[in-house]
Amino acid sequence: MEQLLQETLRVFETQFGREARWVVTAPGRVNVIGEHTDYNDGFVFPMAIERGVIIAAAPAKASDDIPAGQARIYSVAKKKFVNVPLSGEILPGEQVQWFDYVRGVIAGCLEEGVQADAFVAVIHSNVPLGGGLSSSAALEVATATLLEEITGKTFNPVQKALLCQKAEHVFAKMPCGIMDQFISAMGEKDNIMLLDCQDCTTQMVPFVSEAMGILITNSKVKHALSGSEYPERRSSCHDAAKILGVASLRELTMEQLEAGRDRLTDRQYRRAKHVVGEISRTLEAAQAFRDSNYAEAGKRMYASHDSLRDDFEVSCPEIDILVEIARGIGPDGGVLGSRITGGGFGGCTVTLIEMARRDSIMQTLRDEYVAKTGIEPEMFVTRPAQGAHIIS
Ligand code: ADP
Ligand code: MG
Asked: Model confidence over 123-158: pLDDT tens digits?
């Protein structure tokens, strides 16, 4: 992040001809285990990554020549300036643009009575945009953190995460769960967050061993969907819960599911089996991290992948190849577990590795993935990072 910070400060000086007064950051995230459990009132287990958004800002001056009560913001990624209002009625645009994430957060801050005076800012990020590591939540949470810093007012972290989630719902038109904004706002170094999506409570689970790390591998594929895939998963889960007489699959045990199997279609049964199993696996993996039992944690990650591939059917050949290469390297080669992470049908895998073997693991994954698919993957290793904070 140090390099990103230096670049941000340099761009700020180039664009605005002075030094930044405020510098804030918020991280991207990866979900270690607990996939498609959020909308079933289950648990997810994300951690903040050592990549994020940095925003540098300063009070506006007359020479900046920006309309009263507005902010002038430059995105390095987009190579674009935009003026955004800081007061009055702020409404979502017709088509979602990158600055809608910022506008949505400013609108949410205004609702909470937090209003900043005119400022100029540079946004810079090393979270790949649209890569499944939640560059969007990082941008939202960094924006909210900047407004806190500028105004001297603070939100409680849950309120801040919910405000950012609302920006994503209303301004980015993305009906996401609470995970991304929660972990970006509240992540802690060397900890993974066990988040209960039923009541929004969190527990920090220590991931203490610096000998272990998380390897994120981008398959570089994103399969085109017909649009019915996610709604089908949701309604299958919802219908299975309803048929079996529970408020959500969170309330169901595997025994109850097996006892009620005849009343479900085969598809409903398999979707529910994934969710019920995944909720247990997530809790077991969290306990394994607490116990520094990384072999057990890794087993749950593999089991999660198998379930997402076979029962929930959200994997794809390229992702399966990455997980199988990781499995092939095995514990002797320093790999303890691997799985698809994110919504599915492409994106990234998350792999639990021994840090000392990181180079050989990455080499093998790259070589074998290229040989089998012709695609060059992108990879980086991270430890759990701190959530949003003020840099200076
Ligand atoms: P993900 O969150 O998985 O990276 P999303 O589609 O949810 O993917 O969010 C990506 C969008 O967020 C981008 O297309 C862009 O509109 C916005 N965004 C994220 N980071 C930045 C940035 N640094 N500058 C401008 N826009 C950004
Ligand atoms: Mg996103």
From this structure: 999 999 988 999 999 999 999 999 999 999 999 999
The pLDDT confidence band at residue 225, using thresholds 50, 70 and 90, is confident
Rounded to whole angstroms, the Cα distance separating 349 from 340 reads 4
Give yes or no for residue 119 CB within 6 A of ligand 1. no
Three-class DSSP labels, 283-295: HHHHHHHHCCCHH
- Could you tell me which residues are beta bridge partners of residue 389? 25
Mean pLDDT of 5-27: 98
Distance between Cα 135 and ligand 2 center (Å): 6
Nearest ligand for residue 82 CA: 1
Region label for 260, one of left (φ > 0), alpha (ψ between -120 and 50) or beta (otherwise): alpha
Tell the burial category of 392 from Cβ atoms under 10 Å away from its Cβ (0-12, 13-18, 19+): exposed
Residue from 129, 134, 222 to probe ligand 1 pocket by mutation (most atoms less than 8 Å from CB): 129
What's the rounded Cα separation, in Å, for the pair 169 and 176? Answer: 7
Q: What is the pLDDT of residue 206?
A: 98
- 136: CA distance to ligand 2 center in Å? 4
